[in-house]
Amino acid sequence: MMKLKITRSDILLFTIQAAAWAALLLLPVLSVFFFTQKWDNAVATFWILFGLLRAPLLLWFVNFYLLEPLLWSKGRRWQFIASNVVLILLTNYWIFQLDFSKFPLDNELAYIGFFMGLFIYLLFCAATVATTVGLRNYLRSQRLKQQLKEEQQRHTEAELAWLKNQINPHFLFNTLNNISSLVQIDGDAAQDAIAQLSDLLRYAMYETDKPLVPLRGEIDFMQNYIDLMRLRHNEKLTVCTKWSEVPPQTSIPPLLFISLIENAFKHGVSSSRPSSIDISLFMDNGQQTLTFTCSNTNYPKNDQNRSGSGIGIENTRRRLDLMYPGRYTWEQTLGEDNIYTTRVTLKIE
């Protein structure tokens, strides 16, 4: 047997409806009492209003909590309409008890006025039913939208976690390869690099599990990564970095730009020809924008050596789509001087 689950929002909704009907019934009564200062007039007004509103009141709550959920929302429209016709007739049984022989037969205006009033009253009852259907459909659509939003949020969080987990092992694997190469070249430099790697590992393992990290810490992380990457290459490579001052409270998703830097070292460095990498980050406090630019000479890998190509960049773009929808720009250009540039501008809230 299915248990009826009543939530706090259900109680609140019922309270609001009851309060609205109570106000509709009592406000005219209080107004009469205020202007006439006679309790008998107020009581008479109450019973007149109650006689007029009891049918719409019953129609409202029966439809809202019974007929609309069980019939209309299930597609049983004709059963819903028939049930309401019967309900309107039963709640207005007094119409069938009228003694028309007592009406002034010679006064046609009285007949016209009475039947027009009766028509308007029945129309009001039908409008009450229609309003409950409209309100129910509106509340149902809002609930579905909220559920969809929550589901999308859960999906986004899960996808962000997956993308970040794709980046961390990829980055660590390449960094360990760099250290391995450096050990054979310069032991002292390798020892210093291991200390830097320790800091990188600590950051990657203990800081990047948060949705946002301080931008200052991310800058330090990128600089350490760049320093490690430089050790692997010869003097033909020139690397320039420029980081602007950033407010301490500024935060961004962790490891957001590391794939762009990795891509610059992967496709912008030649062991036999002059190479350059220029990396900058500029914070515009007035416009609340953050611009990351990475420019490098273009030495693309051949078809036989494209391990990992494109995965990091695609993940970065996907993370930007999820974290900054409609609030970022992505520019990629290859100049005539064979300089490949990627520029990302974020709108920081």
Looking at this protein, list some descriptive labels.
349 residues, five-stranded mixed beta sheet, 7 strands, two-stranded antiparallel ribbon, alpha+beta, 8 helices
Shape descriptor reads rod-shaped
Strand content: 5-15%
Determine the N-to-C terminus distance: 50 Å
Q: State the share of residues found in helices, binned by percent.
A: 55-70%
In order across it, which strands form the biggest sheet? 2-4-5-7-6
Enumerate the spans where pLDDT stays under 50 for 5 or more consecutive residues: 305-309
Oligomer state equals: single chain
Number of strands: 7
Helical stretch tally: 8
Give the class from helix and strand content and strand pairing. Answer: alpha+beta
Largest sheet: 5 strands, mixed
Using only CA atoms, what is the Rg? 37 Å
Please write the string of helix (H) and strand (E) elements. Answer: HHHHHEHEEHEEHEE
* Overall pLDDT score: 83
Characterization of the model:
By secondary structure, this protein is of the alpha+beta class. It is built from 8 helices and 7 strands. The chain has helices spanning 8-36, 39-70, 77-91, 108-183, 187-206, 215-231, 258-267, 311-323; strands spanning 213-214, 237-243, 251-252, 275-284, 289-297, 328-334, 339-347. A hairpin with a 4-residue loop joins strand 6 and strand 7 (339-347). Helix 2 (39-70) runs antiparallel to helix 3 (77-91) and helix 4 (108-183) packs antiparallel against helix 5 (187-206). It is rod-shaped and about 115 Å long. Residues 305-309 have low confidence and may be disordered.
